[in-house]
Amino acid sequence: NQSVLEASEATARASAASLGDVQVSIAAEVALSYITLRGTQTLLTIAYNNLSSQMETLQLTQWRLQAGLTTSLEVEQARTETEQTRAQLPVLQTSIAQSRHALAVLTGQPPAALATVLATEIPVPQPADDLALSLPAETLRQRPDVRAAEEQVTAAIARVAQADAALMPNFQIGGSLGLSALTLGALTEGASVVSVLLASVSLPVFDSGARRAEVRTQQAALDQAYRTYQATVLLALKDVEDALVALRGDRERLLFLQRAAEAAGNAALLARQRYRGGLIDFQTVLDTQRTQLRTQESVASVRIALSTNYVRLYKALGGGWQSDDRSALSTQDASEAPRS
């Protein structure tokens, strides 16, 4: 009947929505791996730049030692800073290679397939500056898990209607009454005639208890589906709010850290110049170089976090998987469901 059809169609749509959820998750994983790769490449460039600066400082201390203007202590301190930075390079290079491998596997390719394509460094992709940080609640409905929960409620409602319909009388007699049942012996035994008539009769009046129990079972399933839907919507709301708050915080941090990095770069340059002229001690040079490296790495890390939280917002909103065409879904196989 109609209720059975509606339940089946809703279940099919729920399965299609679950497929969409998997597709969005895979797309998000690809994006996150790509962001990690580009972010690590940026950190590697920062390390190389700082290594170059530290090598210049080391050379400067060696010249000053030869001129009798400093001690070997400053030379060894400069060498320590230089080698510590150099030690970071293999770690970052390993992380870059592993990120390339992860991307290749996620896109169905051998681990080394993207080595050439992704060898050149480019900046971490950033979300648009004018990205809206407030969204209508209705956008949550495009999340595949919310869609799936909605359809499970729809299917449960249809099953309740189906169980209710089964309580209605269905007057069909499937027994037989022929000459063999009208023999003299059969006519004197009324119960035998009744048993012949009822042998294949199925009327709700005879199993109403079981059918009422089925109604209660389906009603309980509906209540559970509704609670699951409520929990899914609340989780979706939390995911979106968390991503929006993180994006807002990352934007503010990036602004302040960029200013700090610029100031740290200027301070490091001035410190080297003043040290060359013998106006400050070497410890000040070391401190400014460390601060410069730390602020540059912080800027890169916040850029990575900003892009990462943008991907999380994409995932929290259901990504690119959208479909309001329920009639089309009801006739499609799950394998033909809309793809992100």
Largest sheet: none
**What's the β-strand tally?**
0
**What's the CATH topology label of the domain at 9-127 and 138-144 and 240-336?**
Outer membrane efflux proteins (OEP)
What is the chain-wise order of helices and strands? Answer: HHHHHHHH
Estimate the strand proportion.
under 5%
Mean pLDDT, all residues: 77
CATH architecture of the domain at 9-127 and 138-144 and 240-336: Up-down Bundle
Portion of residues within helices? over 70%
CATH class descriptor name of the domain at 9-127 and 138-144 and 240-336:
Mainly Alpha
CATH superfamily of the domain at 9-127 and 138-144 and 240-336: Outer membrane efflux proteins (OEP)
Parts with pLDDT < 50 across at least 5 consecutive residues: 173-184, 196-201, 320-340
Structural class category: mainly alpha
Walkthrough of the structure:
The two termini are 34 Å apart. The longest helix is centred in the last third of the chain and has 69 residues, at 208-276. 72% of the residues lie in helices and 0% in strands. The protein has a domain at 9-127 and 138-144 and 240-336: Outer membrane efflux proteins (OEP) (Up-down Bundle). The radius of gyration is 36 Å and the shape is elongated. It has helices spanning 2-66, 72-106, 144-165, 184-188, 190-198, 208-276, 282-316, 326-331. By secondary structure, it is an all-alpha fold. The chain contains 8 helices and no strands.
What's this, in brief?
With 340 residues, the chain is mainly alpha-helical. The chain has 8 helices and no strands.
Q: What secondary-structure arrangement, pairings included, does this model have?
A:
Elements: H1 2-66, H2 72-106, H3 144-165, H4 184-188, H5 190-198, H6 208-276, H7 282-316, H8 326-331
